[in-house]
Amino acid sequence: MDLQTVQAWVTGAQRIVGFTGAGISTESGIPDFRSPGGVWARNRMVDFEEFLTSEEGRVEYWRQKVEAWPAMRAARPNAGHAAFVRLHSLGKLSVLITQNIDGLHQTSGLPRQAVLELHGTTTEAACLSCGDRITSDEACERVEAGERAPRCLKCGGFLKPATISFGQPLSSAVLRRAQSEAESCDLLLAVGSSLVVEPAASIPRVAKYNGARLVIVNREPTPVDEIADAVVRGEIGDVLPAIVGQES
Ligand code: NAD
What we know:
- By secondary structure, this protein is an alpha/beta fold.
- The chain folds into two domains: 1-29 and 77-119 and 171-248, TPP-binding domain (Rossmann fold, 3-Layer(aba) Sandwich), CATH 3.40.50; 31-74 and 121-163, SIR2/SIRT2 'Small Domain'.
- It is built from ten helices and nine strands.
- It has a six-stranded parallel beta sheet, with helices on both faces.
- It starts with a helix and ends in a 5-residue tail after the last helix.
- Residues 21-23, 25-27, 30, 32-34, 40, 99-102, 119, 192-194, 197, 218-220, 235-236 line the site of nicotinamide-adenine-dinucleotide.
């Protein structure tokens, strides 16, 4: 499918749902899941069960968080994020569903309520008992000051970065809203995701099976390509601004 046709679909669409994965943030310097040498590749994975049951696991989790936070905090949105801001300002973006935890869609200018973070956010830490939240800046300062696995100051529960760990259930409210937005959109634009992590990866399928056009922008093939109306290969920062009619 040529780029002009995809541009025309975007121009004609009324309710676009954006769906993004780690690939949209690589041009901001945040490695995607499979990059060799990235934080995710270097560190031992502490799953949710281990976090709940082992002080050593919690200490290791927070050690990794403190190591990764400065680079995450310093990252700035790129042309791909800006393309979704343009769709929003044109009144076409009903919601942006993201698997990313980096908060860059909000930093780029999308209002909080326009972003559904399926896997949570790394910009805050949440108490697993009472739900109270503090900023990651505050949590990391406390770890560096000697609290190796910080506890909630309100109730004493375990504080955990507000991301969804392996083995931790997604927020059912967020997932329900994402599915319902996918059911009612007329175009879903899936960008920078390998579309292999479930249940997030089923969202583009939901849109397609409910009659929306499905456009996938990714440099590698995905398992959902075969049902897409268009698959655009290339670097997101080059092709996404063009698709939404914005100079890169
Ligand atoms: P993924 O790493 O599985 O897939 C990313 C895809 O983007 C790959 O297919 C890759 O080829 C493509 N890609 C990377 N850079 C690109 C570019 N500049 N242009 C075009 N394509 C590009 O990511 P996923 O599907 O989001 O799943 C990974 C999981 O890890 C998610 O659950 C996510 O929460 C988490 N994660 C998040 C971040 C983040 O918040 N930035 C980073 C790494 C991992």
